[in-house]
Amino acid sequence: MIITGCGQSNSQQSQKNTPDQVSDNTQNQKNNLARKNSLETNQSDSLPNQISEKSKNESNDFVKQDSIESNQTEKYRSHSLDGFEKATVYKLSETITADFNGDGVLDKAYFKKENADFGIIIKHGKTNEEIKIGFGKNHLDLTELDWVDYWGLVEDKKTRENIFSEQGDLLESKDVLLQNPSIAIGADEVGGGLITFLNGKYVYIHQTC
């Protein structure tokens, strides 16, 4: 064995690390630990992010589906008054304007909810008189209008009235001459009838059961 000037063998000297080597090793360990922590953090964050992204996608799918169904409903309702020659479908939130009582002045009709009851308010433009139909009170045989999905304006001069028994059986069907613009009300896939000013008063003309 060859003895060096420092009293150590070559093998002993090679086993010792210089201060620079120790510093490099420490820095490498720190870097490895930092990369490990970063990887664990990314993995930890990825699950909530994935859940959030999935929820967002599902929410978007629901919105798209609701939009499709809404468009289909609106399309169906737009054809609900096709049996009339001149008719316009309105949303329940929209006001219908026409001369309903034939006095030469435009009137307005509103579909409203008062407390827990639904109904229609017709306000005459000439006198400001308000006619209420529904709202839990029996008027024109229409006590409650919570079944109404759409309404509209009908300007035909003639329509068909169907008279039903309490059991829903058709008893009679006849033509009715209309004197003024009428308000159509209906339920999806069921139908309804017309509210019209006839011979000095408002009446309801049944058209479907």
Task: Tell me about this structure.
By secondary structure, the protein is of the alpha+beta class. The protein folds into two domains: 10-76; 87-206, no CATH class. It has helices at residues 10-15, 19-78, and strands at residues 87-90, 96-98, 107-114, 117-123, 130-134, 150-154, 158-164, 170-177, 182-187, 191-198, 201-206. A five-stranded antiparallel sheet has the order 1-6-9-10-11, with no helix packed on it. Strands 2-3-4-5 form a four-stranded antiparallel sheet, with no helix packed on it. Strand 10 (191-198) and strand 11 (201-206) form a beta hairpin. The chain is elongated.
- The ordered H/E elements are HHEEEEEEEEEEE
Low-confidence stretches at least 5 residues in length (pLDDT < 50)? 1-16, 62-69
Widest sheet: strand order? 1-6-9-10-11
Distance between the termini: 116 Å
Count of the domains: 2
Radius of gyration: 40 Å
Structural class assignment: alpha+beta
Shape: elongated
Number of strands: 11
* Count, helices: 2
Main sheet: strands, sense, barrel: 5 strands, antiparallel
Give the overall average pLDDT: 78
Helix content: 25-40%
* Approximate strand percentage: 25-35%
